[in-house]
Amino acid sequence: MTPDFVVVKVGGSLFSDKSRPGSLDQQVLRAYAELLAGLVARHPGRLAVVVGGGAFGHGAIRQRRDDDAFGLVALTQACFTVKWAWTEALRAAGVDAFPLQLAAMCTLEQGVPRACPDVLLGLLGRGALPVLSGDCLLTTEGELVSFSSDRVPEVLLPVVPGRMRAVVLTDVPGILRDGRDGGDVLAEVDAHDPGPAYDLLWTQSPWDSTGAMHTKLAALVTCARGGAECFILRGDHTVADLDFLFAPTADLPAGLPRTRIAGVDAAAAA
Amino acid sequence: MTPDFVVVKVGGSLFSDKSRPGSLDQQVLRAYAELLAGLVARHPGRLAVVVGGGAFGHGAIRQRRDDDAFGLVALTQACFTVKWAWTEALRAAGVDAFPLQLAAMCTLEQGVPRACPDVLLGLLGRGALPVLSGDCLLTTEGELVSFSSDRVPEVLLPVVPGRMRAVVLTDVPGILRDGRDGGDVLAEVDAHDPGPAYDLLWTQSPWDSTGAMHTKLAALVTCARGGAECFILRGDHTVADLDFLFAPTADLPAGLPRTRIAGVDAAAAA
């Protein structure tokens, strides 16, 4: 398929060291900001960026006390801090970027995100770049729950126009057959039969000790079942451009390892 | 009238010195947080707080460059910082407070705010306290414009259930007949005939050099025409409680100076 809209998620591990509170690699932010500026210039209103929580998000979740159900509110501030750092880097690169607090525009109903899209669509309509992240969301039962940045494409899917591609940039080149430091990447996941991919994660669990890849796979399977074409690949801020994100599936760089997750429809559209 | 819902706005001048960047009086925040905690305990789900931008908001507006229409985005971060400071103070006082980025949930259509109320109503439904503020809002024409915290009650009016009272706490006791340091407070403004009140602001302009009282009056006249009962009064964090905010109009403390702005309906309901 050729995407009409791309949502790119930049994993926290690419720009923040979880083990160091407040860690933010400004050089990496600047590099990604330049790359995203190029994309926005060529595809205005057709891109959204989602940033991982890095040290900020994990810190907020770790510090929560068990007896304080509402303590998760700290996550919304932590995520806003990260979004603002990205917004500043993007603005320095000439992008009309705008940070959006997901918790203010989205609730969870039986686990399914329900977003109010007005502001997001307004920003896209004027060619601006929405900067999104995970957050703590209120459920219809009145609970605050953590909502992974990997699931944000799921929020956008019913909202943005046309065919959506979701690309998750992380610190591994995809779902691996041979462990964390391996290079044997599972190329395709059928969203309607993801069992084999889950099996790989179970048997290779040491390289996914936090379950992060599990979360990504589940989120992207949901998106793909909804019609999106999804990719997991290694983020690299030193590339010349990210134009391939908007390329037709058949034209993606042959040498670029990635795991593609799509349904039958997306495959046919390719 | 007896309000079903109260939105209380705490003016920035009460807790922040505009002339000092980053100014935030934590002692005042703590005192208000305790007062608001009492109100939430007695009226769960029937209160929202709006905080002024203080030094943060004014700094963000001042620093904007004329050639950078999107530069106003800094206001959303500045306002979030203030909301978070209030959220922390309120949480320390035992309140389930949650900061909401207005810019993520509200657009302006021909100057009229259109909000997505799901999260706000969800928070109220579980007895939590939404912490709101002014912000930069996206218009349907794709512009970013500054939206005063004084206008936030206007956002809530069509959204919250029942009869709404909007109370603006500021550093003067109401609209004054005899200048800034005077004590002759205009007691009543008929929302359907606010001319005399505007006249007072024009002739007494030296005490309203920033036009702040103009903004308040215009915002509250709009609210009152929509059925709310509105007050402007001096904020005092040293009082024993703020229970009078929920009192029937007739039972408000006789000795408390204030300007009341209401339409005929609200007057009849009183």
From TrEMBL, chains A, B:
PANTHER family for the chain: GLUTAMATE 5-KINASE, ISOPENTENYL PHOSPHATE KINASE
The protein, known as: Aspartate/glutamate/uridylate kinase domain-containing protein
Species per Swiss-Prot/TrEMBL record: Micromonospora cathayae
High-level lineage: Bacteria, Bacillati, Actinomycetota, Actinomycetes, Micromonosporales
Gene3D superfamilies: Acetylglutamate kinase-like
Keywords (A to Z) from UniProt: ATP-binding, Kinase, Nucleotide-binding, Transferase
Pfam families: AA_kinase
Residue ranges that the Swiss-Prot or TrEMBL entry lists as coiled coil: none
Stretches assigned to the Aspartate/glutamate/uridylate kinase domain: 5-233
Keyword match Zinc-finger: no
InterPro entries according to UniProt: AceGlu_kinase-like_sf, Asp/Glu/Uridylate_kinase
